[in-house]
Amino acid sequence: MTLDLYFARRYLKAFGLVFGAFLGFLLLLEMVEQVRRFDTSDLGLSEALELALLAAPETLYRILPLIVLLSTLVLCLGLARSSELVIARAAGRSGLTSLAGPVVTVAVLGALAVAGLNPIVAATSLRYETAAARYAGAEASVLSVSREGLWMRQGGVGGQTVIRADRASRDGTRLYGLTFIAFDAAGAPVSRIEAREAVLVPGAWDVTDAKEWRLTGSPNPEAEAVSHASLRLPSDLTIDRIRDSFATPSAVPIWQLGAFISQLEAAGFSARQHRVWLQMELALPFFLVAMMLIGAGFTMRHARFGRTGQMVVMAIGLGFALYFLRNFAQVLGESGQIAPALAAWSPPVAGILASLGLLLHLEDG
User: Fold this and answer.
1) CA-CA distance, 196 to 113, in Å (whole number)?
2) 12: Cβ–Cβ under 8 A, 6 or more apart, which residues?
3) How many helices (H) and strands (E) does the chain have?
4) What tens digit of pLDDT does each residue of 32-76 get?
5) Element spanning 163, H or E
């Protein structure tokens, strides 16, 4: 038990060093990228640092498997050079037994990353997108999904229009059970339209079975309400703008992702991408363990055996191959070629089994 705690502390120290190095490098890289991207007098050094701090957590979270792999290489190479692994084997502990402490440590780090770092990344990525849109002068998201249904907004010459619908088609271009509320430039409501259905066509909404209330200049809007069998309302929305307004799965905290999937499907949209992401997040601790075992399998040899550089390169290459396999499986899952659970869990299971086979072969022949 004491030796397991010692190896676990050594791994935490290696992980902290690698994580800190990547954090510092990414902050510098992000600051340069923000200055290059937003070539404006409004973006000073403090603003660039703020954007870099908001963008760095997402990048760190994405490369967490690489950080775990490199931390494992640092740990195992250090133990091999100091002959501590040889002493542990002489005391009757196999290589697999010596890895118990680091494996548990990686699993705990993965669980903490999913439970704690994931919501932080979701919050910082949303704040980054908002701040980046402000500096770039771009438009904010035009669509959101809630328990009340689907909400959109669109601009116009006279002001903004808010659209609420009970549900929609998968691409968001056909709405059902909807309400249009138009506002003037000062933000006061001008009119309200309730309709059974609306279809987005280039430059307008084709509304069917609608009723319109004028909210200005009339003491009794209901008495002067007008019914329309069909109505065309100008719109600046496009299919691309609606599609780009969906929150990416990584922008939704893991604790809220299940409810968001339910709301998305209730609104009529496909939530396959979000389901795959949820399974990928749940499988992340196991994937980190697989990366850790891959690194250990190639570098637990004693340094006097030589070829250390080749082993490090092979470990990094196999780690990148497993990372690519994970991303490829995610693409297959999002496209519907394989089930979300299979896309998320097959790479870590394959990586753990393959690395365990390698370790058993090297340790026991």
Assistant:
1) 45
2) 105
3) 13, 7
4) 888 777 765 666 777 788 888 888 898 999 999 999 999 999 988
5) strand 160-168
